[in-house]
Amino acid sequence: MATTMATTPPPSATPMRIFETLRAYEQTAALRAAIELDIFTAIGEGAATAAEIAARCGASERGVRILCDTVVTDGLLAKTVSEKGEAHYSCAPDAAFFLDRRSPACIASVADFLCTPENITGSLTLADCVRKGGTVQPGQGTVEPDNPFWVLFARAMAPMMAMPAQFMAEQVAGTGPLKVLDIAAGHGIFGIAIARGNPRAQIHRSRLVGRP
Question: What pTM was estimated for this model as a whole?
């Protein structure tokens, strides 16, 4: 039985969550551009104004200013204005730690995988995928056997797992003989971390069909 539609919104209901979700791709695009242009590294190296950042990144001052202001609204950059009205940008603590390429914890490369045309196209065609019950990309899409997409995954995503892998290795590596089966190894960083912690460990790698 059909229900009667309300003519007034429920208490505290707003369309903001819907709006923010629908525009989330703009946040992705801005962050991806900032990573690609090395905005965070440039700021970490001392560039603070749009002109200084633009000079280091090889981009237009206007474009850098607009991009930085956009990233400021997402909280990954901070902005202060001097008495002379000049804007200065700085990295938020998480951006400085994870997106400055000089940092040993830098995970900027994950954008190379997460923002690939394959992933973006897959997201934009999701309704078609639901109608079909599977990918609408050629063949089996990203799980096509020997798809080079997963080589990119291994190279781009390894830094993301470096810290968890080191933590795990410290818990299990030990010092004596050890056999490790790394299933769906991909980048192999977990097995590598254990091997570094225990030279006597034997690492056996396995993989899913179609992936490295």
Answer: 0.79
